[in-house]
Amino acid sequence: MVEVDIYSGRENPELPLDPSIARGLYLMLEDIDAAGLVKPSDPPSLNLGFRGFVVTPSDTSMPVLRILPKTVYSVQGGTYEKFDDFDENFYTRVYHALGPQLPEAVPEARPTTTPTIPNLTAPMPANLGDTATWTLAEPDRVNPASTSFTMDVTRLGCAGGKTGTVLEPTFSISDTQIIIRANVKPAATGGARCPGNNSVPVTLTLDEPIGNRDLLDASCLEGDAVSTLPCAGGSVRWTP
């Protein structure tokens, strides 16, 4: 359950949180704590306006989380700890999981990592597996005459540090854009820890030269990767 701490003088809304999202939050917390990044803290100073998402787990042995855009507080037995979340991984996951259920005032504090989505001239490629993002392995070797290039593909979700099997990339082509989606084979559910996953090189061969077209990562145009760090710089991976 998530309390959206925003009102003063009346009851805050409480919204259900998908169990898989909640599980991911606490797996990330375990990794951050194991890295020694969770520090003792005073209670946060709470002013008027939006004061964060308060996640209360069903398991009372686990801490309550107060999630702000760049800071997360962990509260258990009246003891406060906190850690910095400069990439807004916690805030972004909760914000997008709750989506249209949020009160109107909350979008004013929307994740700052959300990039601008360009106007698309090619259709979105098929989505065939779990979400992954990609970058060019050797961008300096790509040019308008290139018909093939190598991508470094990284799974987005928690998978114990392993991207796993990359599926055959799908793509679509217009006069100005080539949109490429690199999905990965679905991972086993439950229990996976959340360190950064490794990158897997995959070579994509096109039916024609790139020409004067941008290369775009489809996962940074729609879906759960859009507001994450791999997409913070936008979806364009190469431009002529």
Per-chain topology:
Layout lengths: L1 E3 L9 E2 L3 H16 L4 E2 L12 E3 L8 E4 L3 E6 L2 E6 L4 H10 L33 E5 L11 E8 L14 E4 L3 E5 L17 E7 L8 E4 L18 E3 L2
Parallel strand pairs: 11-13
Antiparallel strand pairs: 1-2, 1-4, 3-7, 4-5, 5-6, 6-7, 8-9, 9-12, 10-11, 13-14
Structure notes:
With 240 residues, this protein is of the alpha+beta class. 11% of the residues lie in helices and 26% in strands. The chain has two domains: 2-109, no CATH class; 132-238, no CATH class. The chain has helices at 19-34, 89-98; strands at 2-4, 14-15, 39-40, 53-55, 64-67, 71-76, 79-84, 132-136, 148-155, 170-173, 177-181, 199-205, 214-217, 236-238. A seven-stranded antiparallel sheet has the order 2-1-4-5-6-7-3, covered by helices on one side. A four-stranded mixed sheet has the order 10-11-13-14, with no helix packed on it. Strands 8-9-12 form a three-stranded antiparallel sheet, with no helix packed on it. Strand 5 and strand 6 form a beta hairpin.
Q: Can you describe this structure in just a few lines?
A:
This protein has 240 residues and is α+β, with helices and mostly antiparallel strands.
Order of helices and strands: EEHEEEEEHEEEEEEE
Instruction: Give the strand order, joined by hyphens, for the main sheet.
Output: 2-1-4-5-6-7-3
Rg, Cα atoms, Å: 20 Å
Number of strands: 14
Features:
240 residues, alpha+beta, seven-stranded antiparallel beta sheet
